[in-house]
Structure formats: C-alpha cells, structure tokens
Amino acid sequence: DLQRIITHYHANGYFDARIATKNVVQNAKDKSVRLKISIYEGEPTQFSEITLNGIEEPEIRTKLEKALKIKVGARFQQNTYLAAKNALVLELRRQSYAYAQVRGRVTVDMQERKAAVDFFLDSGPKSVFGPLTIEGLNRVDEKFIHTALTFKEGEPFTPDALQETQE
Questions:
Q1: Burial of 100 (0-12, 13-18, 19+ CB in 10 A)
Q2: d(CA 93, CA 113)
Q3: Are 17 and 42 in contact (CB under 8 A)?
Q4: Strand, coil or helix: what is 32?
Q5: Angle at 102 between CA 97 and CA 106, to 5 degrees
C-alpha cells in the first residue's frame, strides 16, 4: 500500500514524494491496527512546454490547441495528460479524420521540476460517411431509421453526427 501512495503522488506531479515516517500500532483487545504515515511531498512538477507535431494547417492547429486541457505552468497530472491526448484525437475526428491517432511523450526534468510534453499527431486521411446498411430490423420500420439519420452518404465524417444518430 505504501508504494501505491507514492505512485499516486508521482502521477500527480510530486516526483520527490516519499514516506517520511510510518507507524503501526496494534490493539490486541479489538484486534485492530492503526497506521500513521507522514509523507514528504516535495515541490510539484509543472508543465513547461506543450508541442503538437504532425499538423501544420493553421486552422486545425488552432482548434487542437483550444481542445487541450493542459496549460504551461499547471501542475503535471497524468490524468490531465491522458485526457489531453484523448481530446486531440476527438478534435481530429471532428475535423473528419476518422482514423486519427495521437501518441505522446512526457520528458520530466526532476531537478527543474518541469515536464515537457510532445504530442505526435497522425491524422490519417479525411473521411466521409459511406453507404449505410441497416440490418436486423424486426419491430422498427426502416423508414423511421432513415429519418433519424443526422448524416448522408458522402458527407464529411464526424463522431458527433454518428453519436447523435445512435442516440
């Protein structure tokens, strides 16, 4: 359990965190154990640089930068970094890049307490909605399904249109 505590601190930008003291007190009467742990957190690591590689088109870069949920100067958090990767993929897909992929790399300078983030974006080709096939209808009229569609064959792919139709 002690290692999980330290791992939690590391994932939240406290890379110097360590167990300062630990005390275990057993109570024979009620067969309980009381744990007292002191943690030295150290100073937090901050995002120092965020770089997007692979997309040069200014309009799309601007949308990608707006989609990011991390900012230079904010405390490094692994969940925030992972959410930023997912936000980049989603924004690329909203720009009709259905096969977009994003890889990332975080370089941590332990002495300076800085984390530089590089995202590598592979947009893949622009995509359009292809022919739609409706199968397995037993109780619903196919015309009802067609009227609920929010996209047409040949229109640019967006995950939002797909989700709206599914809902």
A1: buried
A2: 34
A3: yes
A4: strand
A5: 160
> What is the overall mean pLDDT for the chain?
93
Can you list the alpha helix ranges (DSSP code H) found in the chain? 2-11, 58-67, 78-94, 142-148, 159-166
Task: Give pTM, 2 decimals.
Answer: 0.84
7: its two tokens: 């791992």
Q: Cβ contacts of residue 11 below 8 Å, gap of 6+?
A: 77, 78, 79
- State the Cα–Cα distance between residues 93 and 88, nearest whole angstrom: 9
Position 135 scores a pLDDT of 84
pLDDT tier at 165, thresholds 50, 70, 90: confident
Residues of the chain with pLDDT > 70, as a percent, come to 100
- Sheet containing 101-109: order of strands: 46-53, 114-122, 101-109
Radius of gyration (Cα) for the chain, nearest Å? 24
Rounded alpha-carbon distances, angstroms, from residue 117 to 7, 41, 49, 92, 103:
20, 23, 6, 18, 11
Q: Are 157 and 92 within 8 A, CB to CB?
A: no
